Sequence to fold (567 residues):
Amino acid sequence: MQTKLRLIQYLLISSLTGLTIGAVVSLAANIFVYGIKFFEALRLSLLSQFSFIQSTEYVIPFAWLTIGFIFVFFIKKILGCTSWQGPADAIYCAHRPDRNMDIRQGFGTVFAAFTSLSAGASLGQYGPIVHMGALIGGLFRKYNLASVNLSNDIFLGCGVAAAISAGFQAPIAGVIFAHEAILRHFSVKAVAPIAISSICAASVGEWLNLNDNILVLNFVPEPLIKQVPALLVGGLLFSLIAVFIMKSTLSGIAAVNKLNLHVIYTGTIAILGLGVLAIYIPETIGIGMKPLVSILSGEYAANALILLFITKIIAILISICFGFVGGFVSPALIIGALSGALLSVSLSSIGFEVSSVTLMIAGMAAVSGTIVGAPISMVMLVFELTESYDFAVAAMLSVVVANLFSHLVFSHSLFDEQLKRRNIDVSLGRGNLALMEQPIVEIVKTEFLRVRPNESVQRTIELLKKEQQTEAYCVAEDGTYVGKLFLPQLLKSRQNDEVHTSVLTSDIIIPADSSMFQAIKIASDFVGEAMAVVDQESGVLLGIVTEADLFLVYLKAQSDVHKLEHG
Fold:
């Protein structure tokens, strides 16, 4: 009876959690999106209202960007943000059940992204929305008062799924994105609340009449068989473009950080660079949803597409490398559409019949899917947004080719590469990741047989027999480790010799700063009872670790992962 009550309680609480997170994230995401639209409209209205003033079209873009950059600077200072966060941090927390989202720095990043995008930075809104969804899920987890303990991935998954669902009005894509891009596993316990959260978020958006779908096109796709060669070639091209953007972004940020420029200089570069683009090529500034509609409508000639393609990439790099904050999905959608349009023009010029709209949509899905590491989610997003099965199947060809190539030559996603540069490799799996972050000193044993270097071999053998041990550890007066003593080796030595002459020459030790994962790798070549854990700087012996200790830690880590993913 108690089991049934506990099951009903779990179902009610997990469902209520999904509904609540979905509603809250949907409202927050829509406020974020429409707030940016409001400030963009305000900037354009200022241009028209003050058109009688000479050089208004030059002054306002620079002034707007300057105010935005100053706000970003003060947000960072006031909230104490040591670094900007994003979906990569949500992925990391999803792989470490014992960790929670950094709420203060996380929301600082969201506010900074809102300010940057409102000022006209050429970045995206969906990355910050996803991170905001994860943060809201993290808040619910932090202050969870439920008697039934819900796992970390349920809270994060509900928040992320709701964010994608609210941002695109695509609930199915939201559920898949949460599992594919963030959680990286499918849990029976988690899928119900995550799906409820995603559907609730879409329902709230629909209730508020916030559906703003730009991809419902009055266009009938060409037969798929005619498009296959172009889509396969396009997949490779889109992957190269996505890899170029990711590498350029990471290299650019690293180069700017290495220069250690004062914020005044980075701000000046960002404001001047984006300001000039805002004056001469305004389509490259901001989120760029209106230019995306124009691209899909075929309003640009080939030379304009090339110019937009180049300047948009420049605008993205200036924005992200010199101090503004934002995501990559929106820019990736625009770059993907431009790539598809340029590929269509190129193939048509040499006599191939291709559908430009199909290639543009495939480019959008492939470039964005490669950057965020969510190919299936992007295919489903195309299906939900275009309401076309044909477009979704066509996009899948390019998406899978692009993701495979990118995975082989670069990384699974931009977020994975960001984590790798912080020495966090989520591809190792939850169990190994937990072992990598658990220090070996946590299981060190300090009770073992110590012998001074000047002790005789005979006396040491007597001590070993008394303690019923086969191993002892030779330690100097100051705690410095001399070496391991092994009973069979001592029995072969002269009884009156000092024991330090009989230490094992092939002794395997574990550095004190090692993780459990590193210790297990070291122990794979070890034969014996225990290994010494030594501080590499001082040479002091901190204790010993047995193989059994390492096995227990490993089995516990695997058990925790299995319980999370299959429990």
